[in-house]
Recover the amino acids of this structure.
């Protein structure tokens, strides 16, 4: 009897997570954390789209090791975080204060 070997065919994919700014308040601080470490902390901007843009810019300028392997992009009120390396998981938590 011949030996059977499993050969995976699926390509590795990078994790993608999204954060949507659903409400706006100029006096509110919007925070994104990884493992309890605040990577981004920004004040509300002119509206939800402006706040999402501010979060995106702050994320891409962040220097903490937890966030440097993740690239941020923005479209209207939604920030998309994508791992730079496939199969490297991350958990981002959003909060406001």
């Amino acid at each position: 009897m011949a030996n059977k070997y499993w050969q995976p065919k699926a390509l590795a994919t990078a994790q993608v997570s999204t954060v949507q700014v659903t409400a706006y308040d100029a006096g509110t601080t919007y925070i994104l954390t990884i493992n309890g470490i605040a990577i981004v902390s920004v004040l509300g901007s002119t509206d939800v789209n402006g706040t999402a843009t501010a979060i995106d810019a702050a994320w891409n300028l962040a220097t903490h090791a937890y966030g440097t392997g993740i690239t941020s992009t923005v479209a209207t009120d939604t920030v998309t975080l994508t791992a730079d390396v496939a199969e490297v998981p991350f958990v981002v938590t959003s909060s406001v204060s």
Q: What stands out?
A: DSSP finds one helix and six strands in the chain. The first strand starts at residue 16 and ends at 20. Helices lie at 48-61. The beta strands are 16-20, 29-34, 37-43, 70-75, 78-83, 92-96.
